[in-house]
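Duplicate of #3305? Posting structure anyway:
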């Protein structure tokens, strides 16, 4: 019954963020259904998981600031702005597609 214990997700990075994740734009992950406290995992939990387990680059501050996604990074949950879904408190669902896009550009 592994399907009840993990949630399959597709995580994508664009706008330069992929360089923080081994230059890979698309990641297919399976994450636990519950966090350490027994609560359903959320996008906020996922961001921390990405920083701790998936990101190989040491520049975590380019992705998070004060344990939140940096301003200037657009987050889409199944093609909808995460602000419409509850932002970091959104409980992850099987086969969710989470897209992180940097809107910050040098010039």
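Output from current build:
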């Amino acid at each position: 019954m592994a399907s009840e214990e993990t949630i399959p997700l597709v995580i994508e990075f664009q706008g330069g963020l992929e360089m923080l994740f081994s230059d890979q734009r698309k990641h297919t992950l399976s994450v636990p259904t519950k966090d350490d406290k027994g609560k359903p995992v959320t996008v906020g939990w996922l961001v921390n998981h990405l920083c701790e387990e998936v990101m190989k680059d040491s520049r975590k501050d380019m992705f998070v600031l004060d344990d939140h996604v940096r301003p200037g990074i657009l987050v889409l949950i199944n093609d909808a702005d995460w602000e419409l879904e509850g932002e970091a408190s959104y409980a992850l669902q099987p086969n969710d597609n989470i897209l992180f896009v940097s809107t910050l550009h040098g010039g």
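Confirmed duplicate; merging threads. The chain has a mean pLDDT of 91. Helices lie at 2-5, 43-54.
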